[in-house]
Amino acid sequence: EVIVIGAHYDHLGLGGEGSLTPEQRLVHNGADDNASGIAAIMELAQFYVDQKKKGELNLKRDIIFGAWSGEEMGLFGSKHFINKQKEEKKDKVYPSIAAYFNLDMVGRLEGKPLTVHGTGSSATWSELVDSVSGDLELKKSDNPYLPTDSTPVYNAGVPILALFTGLHDDYHTPRDTIDKIDYVGLEKVSNYLRDLTTATSNLE
């Protein structure tokens, strides 16, 4: 069994279709959507690598990190991954993939609760997500059907959780720049992802 953790690394380039400022042919930097999600999963990957080097990595399940392409065009990367999993496993993707965590726009916490979508996709989630929250305030949503890469995975029968710090006025515009990121908040989200992943990996 593995846990997959993913985030999309594409954005809108110079805008056009999907941009909320389509008249502006300017670089859409995507600092929050979704460099913030990619940064969080890279940080977690580095954490586990460091633990392994020290001989301190002790997880019951392996972890796979995925950086998906084509999310903005139609979830192409995550759909392709899941389709390949279905081919190899004859449609039985779960429980070989025991859980999937998605990070899409996690860089604008700014004192708000962290939204955890998809808690209805497993009877285990609600209690587990609270158990590792520490002083981080959470807003839980049962709904697993989201316009992001968790949906193809959930449709394949895998329990999902999707972390999200909320929409903002800079979404899908050239204004989504690095100076707007809440780095203290992003660290809190990354630490929460670490504790959530470790706890899930070690469940019976």
Structure description:
This protein is of the alpha/beta class. It is built from six helices and six strands; from the N terminus they run βαβααββαβαβα. The protein has helices spanning 31-53, 71-74, 76-89, 125-131, 150-155, 183-201; strands at residues 2-8, 62-68, 97-103, 114-117, 138-141, 160-164. Helix 1 (31-53) links the parallel strand 1 (2-8) and strand 2 (62-68). The longest helix is centred in the first third of the chain and has 23 residues, at 31-53. It starts with a strand and ends with a helix. The relative contact order is 0.23. The mean pLDDT is 97.
Q: Care to give the gist of this entry?
A:
With 204 residues, the protein is of the alpha/beta class. The protein contains six helices and six strands, in the order βαβααββαβαβα. Strands 2-1-3-6-4-5 form a six-stranded mixed beta sheet, with helices on both faces.
Topology:
Elements: E1 2-8, H1 31-53, E2 62-68, H2 71-74, H3 76-89, E3 97-103, E4 114-117, H4 125-131, E5 138-141, H5 150-155, E6 160-164, H6 183-201
Kindly list the characteristics that best describe this protein.
alpha/beta; 204 residues; single chain; six-stranded mixed sheet
* SS-based class: alpha/beta
Strand content: 15-25%
Rounded mean pLDDT is: 97
Task: Report the biggest beta sheet as strand number plus sense, adding barrel if it closes.
Answer: 6 strands, mixed
Order of strands in the sheet with the most strands?
2-1-3-6-4-5
Tell me the total number of β-strands.
6
**SSE order in H/E notation?**
EHEHHEEHEHEH
What spatial form do the alpha-carbon principal axes imply? Answer: globular
